[in-house]
Design a protein that fits this description.
This protein has 458 residues and is an alpha+beta fold. The strands form four sheets. The protein has a five-stranded antiparallel β-sheet with strand order 5-4-3-12-6. Strands 9-10-11 form a three-stranded antiparallel β-sheet, with no helix packed on it. The protein has a two-stranded antiparallel ribbon with strand order 1-2. A hairpin with a 3-residue loop joins strand 4 and strand 5. Helix 7 runs antiparallel to helix 8 and helix 10 crosses helix 11. It starts with a helix and ends in a 6-residue tail after the last strand.
């Protein structure tokens, strides 16, 4: 480094740029080595399970799923990311090996590798080779002639070749893709979120243009920017079917969710609900929301319900061996406690998951909160058929052991603790009979409450 500092600025800059280029080549080679290692590990995992080419498809599939889960927990990644890595490694060490070789030599970047995999997916071999050739030719031109091609340029050329040579009619591919249309929500910082809609291109463009026209209307005294007005207009139309500034439908747009009153699970400390504290509440499917927003939602909630403990006895919900299927109260308690699938790294919401007996019912497992957990259907099957073992520890903690022997723990989203009946600021008078109404006053000032917005009656 002292020698570099002694060089003129232009010479030192040239040296640094050369160093950066060398680091980039090294990282590309490491990416290639990782893909090959993943493929070798997958083959070893399948072999360790005793699964071969002649094994039933169900056994081969379960061995792959178990390996994906093992890899995800090893890398600390979401299982979907690990699954993509495994699938990419299989293709790059197979039909797309030319791209992997170019990556190892430093001729293409990981972003271009991802583009090749994207645009060759599902194509016949000859068509896929032609699409891949676009990226490899661009890399060769950059080396031999110094022609610079960004990943965006290469993607445009690959897309044109793909559309020109694809054997399936465009209209058929469009119909199949349209069947996958859906709405997604992605949490963002500071109490915000991204709402996305995957749908036909012409409808998406038409929606954007329509919002742009509405947002451009004259609005004297409106301090909002055009982008803010467009976002608010989209929310008004989706939640109430009407615009907030339309006097004919003014009442419909009132409230935090307009005319629509979906079932929302919000856990909020009672002192926050009463305005005596500003501890954040928790919106299921998102995370922390500020106290004022929680109070606004609560003010419009037609009902509230306690989920912690039986308010008469203070006991944690349990049905022992009397019931295999968890009754509604216990079912709701476990799902809100867990929040999401309890397999390591899985984020599927608990309301869409199965309730699984950690110790199987047929092996003496009880139907209570200490032996029930939310598992999505995929990980429910993996627990029973994929060689993963699980034990529930104190406080709802689940200890998982992978087929290789890795030990991992998952925590419940909300660690509810049982309380005694009448526990709180003002214990009930001895002369007052113990009842649901009486018990509510005593312990409502301690643990959190959950409240729901029920569907509107129309």
């Amino acid at each position: 480094m002292p020698a570099i500092l002694d060089l003129p600025a232009d010479a030192a800059l040239e040296f640094e740029l050369a160093s950066i280029a060398e680091f980039e080549r090294l990282m590309r080679r490491l990416h290639a080595d990782r893909f090959r290692a993943v493929q070798r590990a997958r083959e070893l995992a399948v072999e360790a399970c005793g699964v071969g080419p002649s094994s039933p498809a169900r056994d081969r599939d379960m061995a792959t799923r178990s390996f994906v889960a093992e890899l995800a927990t090893t890398l600390g990644q979401h299982e979907a990311s690990a699954a993509r890595l495994v699938a990419d490694a299989e293709r790059l060490t197979g039909p797309r090996s030319a791209t992997l070789d170019a990556l190892e030599k430093g001729e293409v970047a990981p972003t271009q590798v991802s583009s090749v995999l994207e645009f060759t997916r599902g194509l016949p071999t000859q068509v896929a080779d032609s699409v891949e050739g676009v990226a490899l030719d661009a890399a060769s031109a950059a080396i031999t002639h110094g022609v610079v091609s960004t990943n965006a340029d290469v993607r445009r050329r690959m897309r044109r070749v793909r559309e020109r040579l694809h054997p399936e009619p465009f209209v058929d591919r469009r119909a199949r893709a349209a069947a996958e249309r859906r709405v997604t929500v992605e949490a963002a910082d500071d109490g915000m979120a991204w709402l996305g809609i995957f749908l036909e291109a012409e409808r998406a463009v038409a929606i954007e243009r329509r919002l742009d026209v509405l947002a451009a209307r004259e609005a004297s005294g409106d301090p909002r920017t055009r982008a803010q007005r467009a976002a608010d207009l989209a929310s008004d139309l989706l939640l109430s079917g009407a615009l907030a500034d339309d006097e004919r439908f003014g009442d419909l747009a009132a409230g935090p969710t307009g005319a629509v009153q979906p079932r929302l699970h919000v856990t909020v400390p009672v002192l926050t609900l009463l305005g005596l504290d500003d501890e954040p509440a928790d919106l299921e499917g998102y995370g922390p929301i500020d106290a004022e927003t929680a109070r606004i939602i609560a003010a419009h909630a037609p009902s509230m319900r306690r989920i912690l403990v039986d308010p008469e006895t203070g006991a944690t919900l349990s049905y022992g061996r009397d019931h295999y299927r968890a009754p509604a109260g216990l079912d709701g308690f476990v799902r809100v406690r867990d929040g999401q699938c309890r397999f390591p790294g899985c984020s599927r919401r608990a309301e869409r998951a199965d309730l699984d007996h950690t110790t199987a019912w047929e092996h003496g497992g009880r139907t209570d909160a200490c032996n029930l957990a939310a598992l999505c259907r995929h990980h429910h099957r993996l627990k029973h058929e994929g060689g993963w073992r699980v034990v529930q520890e104190v406080g709802g903690v689940m200890r998982w052991t992978s087929p290789v022997g890795h030990v991992l723990r998952t925590m419940p989203e909300r660690r509810f603790e049982p309380v005694e009946a009448g526990e709180g600021l003002d214990p009930p008078e001895p002369s007052v009979p113990d009842s649901r109404a009486d018990a509510d006053i005593g312990d409502d000032l301690g643990p959190p409450l959950e409240y729901e917005l029920e569907p509107a009656p129309f």
